[in-house]
Design brief:
The complex is a heterodimer of chains A (about 260) and B (about 250). Chain A has about 260 residues and is mainly alpha-helical. Chain A is built from nine helices and no strands. Chain A has one domain. In chain B, strand 1 and strand 2 form a beta hairpin. The chains are: A mainly alpha (about 260), B alpha/beta (about 250). Chains A and B meet through helix 5 of A and helix 2 and strand 6 of B.
Amino acid sequence: MTALLFPFAAVGRTTLALLAEIGRVTLYAGRTLGHILRPPFYPSALVSQLIFIGWLSLPVVGLTALFTGGALALQIFAGGSRFNAEAVVPQIVAIGIVRELGPVLGGLMVAGRVSAAIAAEIGTMKVTEQIDALVTLSTNPMKYLTVPRVLAATISLPILVAVGDIIGIFGGYIVSTTQLGFNQAVYLDNTVDFLETWDVTSGLIKGAVFGFIVALMGCYHGMASGRGARGVGRATTNAVVSASILILAANYLLTGLFFSA
Amino acid sequence: MITLASVHKSFGPKRVLRGVDLTAQKGESVVIIGGSGTGKSVLLKCILGLIRPDDGVITVNGQDVTRADRDEFLARFGMLFQGGALFDSMTVWQNVAFRLLRGAQKRPKAEAREIAVEKLRRVGLTPDVADLYPSELSGGMQKRVGLARAIAATPEIIFFDEPTTGLDPIMSGVINELIREIVVEMGVTAMTITHDMSSVRAIADKVAMLHDGVIKWHGPVAEMDTAEDPYLRQFISGSAHGPIEAVR
């Protein structure tokens, strides 16, 4: 009889562990937001994180957007040709990039690069007692480590998304005008005429939310890192996986919120 | 003065501290000895407020550590960590001057650097080390930098967590001498945890032996070698036979 209950017990344990983890992450997010508003502030730490998270992510986000825009143009052209709708390539590339692919792929690429780096850095600081050292030096690790990273990612991601949008549309433009026979001026006119301000703004809002998620997951898992190389490795993996899943889930919720009739 | 009264701390089912009573008078150097995993580091972290004890009272100069203003309280402390715990993204001088570059004790950058270089000189390091990163230093130099950081803001109390772990005997002797000199020179209250008996003899005014979650013996370092306590005797002699179980 007891053996029959094992699967149910395992499901129960997993559910409870998941709920406890959600609770811890929510509390951590709440504490982070609280510390953002209260001094002391560390502007130099914020600037160095803006450079690391924003500036140094530009090549990754730019290349991702460029190839995605090009591939999207090819796919829409091929799909549209089935019902004589090849002409919609500029419009669909533009809306696909600015509303969905720009923020989501940008967020995921930054999650891979930044969440992992943050979790590894903070996790290593934890296992080498650098976090304890910060406390003994009268410095709150939440304010000194978490807040600058979360703020920098929340500010940087919308800018990266905006740059990614431009490069992604440019990728579609290059492919469409060089391989698919589109007129350059007409392609640009169609793109500009079709896009509305809200299409772009909604993508930038998504970018800010994804940036918050990326840095929060990196910091949370770094701070919760176990001992040794295995603990830091696990924290890094958890940071990337949880950030990626949360980005996709948040994207669905935000899309529903912004665009459901 | 640091006073611990009946301090208890458990981690899950494991009872690490089972009622520790200990006092360190102002200006005194107390060394806590004991085997690995007996809770020495936990004890120091409880005093610093890094770990909250389950029960008991810890006071520093009569003030309950759990009720003190954190920044004001921690400003009195300096700590040398076992592995140095230097911030590897910062240069040596930025590590030493960490407290002087931010917060209540903030100074102009040039002045903070000058103080850092002076403290580095005090621990036997030349000014050219100031612009290196911790990863470019040997283990002994890292300990010295950690020591310089611990004394940079002129604390009233300094904690030393295994100050000679991982060092060769000569470098251990140098670090022990430095610690003793600095403690006497600054008149600070010092609390050190170690299993290195040469450190104990070089640094301590008083010795306390922690075993099984309680202080088994405490007294002046001069009385340590003649004490009858079987736990202390076994620990000093390093024998595998005695009341302390040795896993082979």
